[in-house]
Every structure is written in structure tokens, then in C-alpha cells.
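seq:
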Amino acid sequence: MAGAFGYAPDTIDVSIKMAQLDLFPALEAAPIDAVIVADGTSCRHQIAEGTQRQAMHVARLLDMVLDV
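struct:
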């Protein structure tokens, strides 16, 4: 859980522990070519810091797949 909660000095440890329960293991188990989408800037940063995987904003994904 990122956002203001995830990066506040008094809650960052809880946020990381929450991510380590399900989110990080799921992302690490996903295929290397899996598309990971996270709309929040801090969510994408926390995913990158915690898993070395890169998440993208849904708008970037739509830009990649839509021929507009």
C-alpha cells in the first residue's frame, strides 16, 4: 500500500510488510513479460523498489495497445 500512507515515516514499514504478504510474491512469480499496471506514482515506485519489476500507468498501456 503506497501513496501517502506507504511513504510516511511512521507507516512505511507497515506498508512494505503488507506488500510482502501478497503483492510482491505475486509480481515476482509473474512471467517476466507480464504487464504490470499501477495507476499511482508511489505504487509504481514501491513495486520497483520491492521487486525490481516495472509497473506502468493504465494510460500508457492503452496508448501501447490502441491504434488511435
